[in-house]
């Protein structure tokens, strides 16, 4: 068996000049070989010092010059340039690699040991550790009004709760009670006892707005007031965070008066389940954590180039084919598992289960079906509908795909979209559906006779307007189903969608400002403040990706949505809210999800809930220290701070 090792070296970080060294660790020469590896940066083929390269996404094959061998105990080195920002951390490295050779018909896969990448890094100041002492009242996000009184309420092994007659009739408090029963099971057992002696009293207060609540704790118990189910859920979340352990090892709550309401109506988290598949149990766990910090929208990213994760009854091929990648499948390996079949998908029954689970925690699930780019998994699943064999257009997406964009000129595209949209709308009760619309590469549709004919018929001047043609069709279909369209900020390109579409701004605050000035509603998700797949420190061994730089906790906390607008500007009415995101290129499992989200998720929760005037970094740090008990009790693998 051939034993080999690989090492990547940055020769010039400014020019993105790299060197790849392949070491033959045996005495026998390796002849007529092929190197297959997982590398998330695009190698510019014309810059290779020798040999050739073929890349599909991260799936990379390097072939030497014909008849060139690697001598026993020798090495093979090539240099090349990559198309990307400079590499700054070890996770930029090759993740997996193997060698195959002609002497066994390229069947045997000889695993390569990956030596740590050699980086060229400027010296960076490390992020300071938090040294604040844990706050006694450690609620996150910060409440609007808090009065602390002497004394505390001692939680006994059993607590009685009561719900006023009006609440019992309209069922507004049921979800909150059920959630409290579950979350407080470590401390007490809640039982119904509708009399004046109950320890937890839920009362209706019609003067409180949707999502608003008032919470009072004295030595006899807790009174929670709200007018809506979401208000009671938010009050329950605050109550859960007030529980602490006294010196006598009893669970207690300090006597307080709290009045509280959200700054923004939409407070979201997006999880990418296409690049890596995350189980229903993982999704539910995350939704429960979102409710704890008063987030109320879960954006579920189901589809992308690397996998289609949502069962569509009309097109079973989407999950039979598109949910799997690797050997023996239609999709090349990506990001991990070069030699193994990888994937998974959610049945509609499972999705219904999650929708119900989320609704009981005051959370709306917003599905995303990404079009017209990022569609490789769908195209590979339904080529009879989605492939135009006469399209000679040449393009490469930013993720290095040359075949991942739907054609606006094929009847099959519209049959596919209408069918999928109708099923998605029927499945999800949310008023929104996200359709992606991002990162359509230049060059697409230029050499398609059908697309060029459609452009001529419609009087379009360029392919961007053709994309707008397709998105306008989708917008109308969604409206027919009673839904409002969400899209990344590229959805506005081509000027074809109406002001009813919500623009999710991810590239920059400047782009979001332009949208609100044009009269579009926006959901703010600027990558440099809200993309939690980014590294949290400047150290080379920090977990995460670095394409948009580092995103330390303090930067995430100090984000002020559209700071360029005065707080009293009427344009602020176009800000629906704030959302953070976790893309999953390097997020394979539960522990990594925890590490990337916690504690930055708490910072974002405060950005979207608490008034700008009430935010204070030092105060937040003290309350964050007080959250460690919750992290420990729930086995959250948070990044230490």
UniProtKB/TrEMBL annotation:
Chemical reaction(s) catalysed: Hydrolysis of terminal non-reducing N-acetyl-D-hexosamine residues in N-acetyl-beta-D-hexosaminides
Protein's recorded name: beta-N-acetylhexosaminidase
InterPro entries: Beta_hexosaminidase_sua/sub, GH, Glyco_hydro_20_cat, Hex-like_dom2, HEX_bac_N
Entry-linked CDD domains: GH20_chitobiase-like
Occurrences of domain Glycoside hydrolase family 20 catalytic (ranges): 264-611
Domain of life: Bacteria
Keyword field: Glycosidase, Hydrolase
Protein EC: 3.2.1.52
Domain Beta-hexosaminidase bacterial type N-terminal: 137-260
Family stated for the protein in its record: Belongs to the glycosyl hydrolase 20 family.
Root EC class: hydrolase
Keyword hit for Chloroplast: no
């Amino acid at each position: 068996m051939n034993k080999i090792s690989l090492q990547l070296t940055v020769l010039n970080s400014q020019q993105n000049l790299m060197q790849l060294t392949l070491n033959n660790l045996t005495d026998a020469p390796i002849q007529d070989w092929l190197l297959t590896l997982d590398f998330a940066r695009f190698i510019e083929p014309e810059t290779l010092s020798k040999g050739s390269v073929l890349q599909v996404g991260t799936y990379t094959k390097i072939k030497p010059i014909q008849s060139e061998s690697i001598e026993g105990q020798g090495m093979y080195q090539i240099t090349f340039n990559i198309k990307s920002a400079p590499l700054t951390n070890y996770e930029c490295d090759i993740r997996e690699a193997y060698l195959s050779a002609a002497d066994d018909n390229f069947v045997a896969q000889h695993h390569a040991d990956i030596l740590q990448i050699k980086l060229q890094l400027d010296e960076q100041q490390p992020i300071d550790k938090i040294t604040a002492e844990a706050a006694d009242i450690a609620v996150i996000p910060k409440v609007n009004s808090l009065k602390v009184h002497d004394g505390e309420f001692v939680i006994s092994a059993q607590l009685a709760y009561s719900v006023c007659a009006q609440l019992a009739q309209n069922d507004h408090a049921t979800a909150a009670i059920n959630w409290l029963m579950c979350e407080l099971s470590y401390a007490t057992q809640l039982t119904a006892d509708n009399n004046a002696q109950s320890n937890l009293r839920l009362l209706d207060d019609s003067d409180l707005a949707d999502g608003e609540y008032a919470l009072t704790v004295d030595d006899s118990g807790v009174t929670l007031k709200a007018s809506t189910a979401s208000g009671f859920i938010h009050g329950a979340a605050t109550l859960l965070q007030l529980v602490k352990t006294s010196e006598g090892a009893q669970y207690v709550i300090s006597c307080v008066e709290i009045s509280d309401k959200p700054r923004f109506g939409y407070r979201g988290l997006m999880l990418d389940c296409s690049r890596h598949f995350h189980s229903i149990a993982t999704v539910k766990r995350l939704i429960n954590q979102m409710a704890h910090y008063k987030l109320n929208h879960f954006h579920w990213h189901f589809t992308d180039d690397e996998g289609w994760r949502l069962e569509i009854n009309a097109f079973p091929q989407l999950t039979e084919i598109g949910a799997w990648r690797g050997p023996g499948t239609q999709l090349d390996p990506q990001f991990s598992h070069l030699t193994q079949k990888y994937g998974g998908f959610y049945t509609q029954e499972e999705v219904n289960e999650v929708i119900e689970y989320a609704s009981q925690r005051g959370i709306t699930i917003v599905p995303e079906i990404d079009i017209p780019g990022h569609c490789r998994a769908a195209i590979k699943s339904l080529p009879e509908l989605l492939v135009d064999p006469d399209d000679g257009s040449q393009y490469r997406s930013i993720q290095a795909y040359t075949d991942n964009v739907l054609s606006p000129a094929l009847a099959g595209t519209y049959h596919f979209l209408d069918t999928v949209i109708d099923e998605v709308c029927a499945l999800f009760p949310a008023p929104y559906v996200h359709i992606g619309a991002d990162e359509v590469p230049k060059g697409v549709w230029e050499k398609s006779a059908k697309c060029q004919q459609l452009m001529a018929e419609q009087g379009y001047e360029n392919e961007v307007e053709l994309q707008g043609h397709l998105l306008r069709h989708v917008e109308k279909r969604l409206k027919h189903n009673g839904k409002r369209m969400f899209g990344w900020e590229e959805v506005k390109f081509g000027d074809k969608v109406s002001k009813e579409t919500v623009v999710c701004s991810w590239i920059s605050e400047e782009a979001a400002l332009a949208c609100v000035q044009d009269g579009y509603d926006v959901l703010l998700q600027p990558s440099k403040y809200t993309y939690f797949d980014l590294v949290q420190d400047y150290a080379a061994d920090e977990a995460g990706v670095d394409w948009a730089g580092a995103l330390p906790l303090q930067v995430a906390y100090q984000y002020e949505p559209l700071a360029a607008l005065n707080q009293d500007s009427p344009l602020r009415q176009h800000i629906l809210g704030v959302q953070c995101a976790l893309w999953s290129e390097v997020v394979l499992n539960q522990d990594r999800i925890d590490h990337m989200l916690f504690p930055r998720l708490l910072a974002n929760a405060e950005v979207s809930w608490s008034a700008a005037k009430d935010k204070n970094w030092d105060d937040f740090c003290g309350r964050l220290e007080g959250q460690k008990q919750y992290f420990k009790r729930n086995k959250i693998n948070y990044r230490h701070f």
